Amino acid sequence: MEERLSFLRRLQSDMRYIFGLREVGERTGQFTPEGALLVPDCLERSVDQFGGNTAFVFEGRDSSYGDLDVRANRFAHWASAKGWRAGDTIAVFLDNRPDVVGLWFGLSKLGVTVALINSHLSGKGLVHCIESANAQAVVTCHELATVLDEAMSAERATYPRYVLGDGELSDNALDEFSSSRPDRSLRGHLKGKDVALLIYTSGTTGLPKAARMSHSRCLNMMSALIGPTKVTPHDRIYETLPLYHGTTGLCGVGVALLSGAAIVLRRKFSAGSFWEEVCESGATMFVYVGEVCRYLMNRPPSELERQHDIRCIFGNGLRKDVWEELSERTGITHIVEFYGSTEGNISLLNLDSRPGAVGRVPPLIRNRLPVRVVAVEPETGEALRGADGLCREVEAGEPGEAIGEIRLDDARWRFDGYSDKAATEKKILRDVFKPGDAWFRSGDLMKQDRDGYFYFVDRMGDTFRWKSENVSTSEVEQVVNAFSGVDVSAVYGVEVPGNEGRAGMAAICVNEAFDPADFYRHVDAELPAYARPVFLRIVADQFLTGTMKIRKTEAKQQSYELVENGGEVLVADPAKKTYRPLTHEDLQSLRDGHLPGPAPKNT
Length: 603
Description:
CATH topology of the domain at 463-591: GMP Synthetase, Chain A, domain 3
Strand order of the largest sheet: 2-1-10-9-11-12-13-14
Helix content: 25-40%
Structural class: alpha/beta
CATH superfamily of the domain at 463-591: ANL, C-terminal domain
Largest sheet: 8 strands, mixed
């Protein structure tokens, strides 16, 4: 665990959190489930205040807040002419571009719900997302139209689809629609608890689930980081992650557009051009996920890392080792790490840039922030209950599942769930600390130190047993990712016939620095024998989600089988202290219940 704070430092931190969280609460407190304030109301207010300011910098073109509003209004009038009304849902399947925001802003003016579809999906997963949203139509772009058509054809699905730049959605056709705002009466009956967006879980562990994002919840996410980041209308926020994702699409967009700041938008992340673009654009902030920062730190140091104007970064998933290296190499010290899931009600903020912590709840205000960590069985995820039938809160330093109390009268603590009611109920833990209470289950193992800092440990269900020992995939991933030749990894257990438990396997994206023998020495030195990966699968970028995570479900399904386009599979060779290619003879040995030994003489 982390070193305890001194009395003075703890007092300083307490004050920072008490006043900082009070500011966040005052800002987000206006967005209530029963209130009339909706997402388009707040964005229109920003347009009225900052109309001439730059809203987007995208591919060599600047567009203002006024331009954004005009574009959104035309989308709204087009949708109204199609007959779409409040209560309808339209799926948006686009790559990163300002029109993603323009579309959902415009459709929200009518009260229409927008389903933000992952632009990296195809086939069954893509159609599943459209179907689960009960969408009336799909809006896409030239770059993705073929992917959409092929998916609908393969799954025998039929939806009206419209392509930006073509037909009804060509610029000339849109210009025929009014640039004025639709009458607010079209959405006047809606309240904060009504659904504004559907945002999907990443799908790294199964088919994506559609999280129902109410107007009040969206506005909470869009505004919560305004105070902690100290954003001003003069800031330029570099955003390179997908706009269908909550971190960028709500938190990043909201920090900017509710404050008069500019969004410097890129279609996709590029580690090679990142710092050059940050410097050239004059960006003062950027949005991250931990994997992005890891990619940046895996590249050789560059002079540009110190020539930027970045004063603050914000995001989630930044591990301590990468955090400290990033600060040392770039000089960036104001890092606002936050924790929260798209669908969940748990929100944690790290307001004092404590490396590795996802947030803090000072003991002084613990009763006002109902986030707790309860004891669970690590493998099954079952909550451990006492003789009274209630759950037990863990001790400091003890891992457990993070949960958040569900309060329906407060947007910050509501849980609106998924489109799938059964999936929603699985995320609720009942009769926790008293009969009748209900808490949202994060599915994340965390531990909390005596000063109130929370630290992520692992995802529930990602722990497996091998050689009679529990293996934490998160801990193994940290070691694997620390190797210079690995950009990102996903660790999981795979069954080997005749062997108890699951053998460790890692799917890895590698760079030119990867050497199997060096990697073997690395994991041999850093991990106990039972935790070292037995198998490796070298995967290409198509295995990555939009937030630079490997799709673990696909990797698990392939296991160690040699499949076409699945990447090379390596197996540990303890005799030669390296990883070598897995052969068809090895596969037969595995099916017979034997782990592969040293490479054959003729290999």
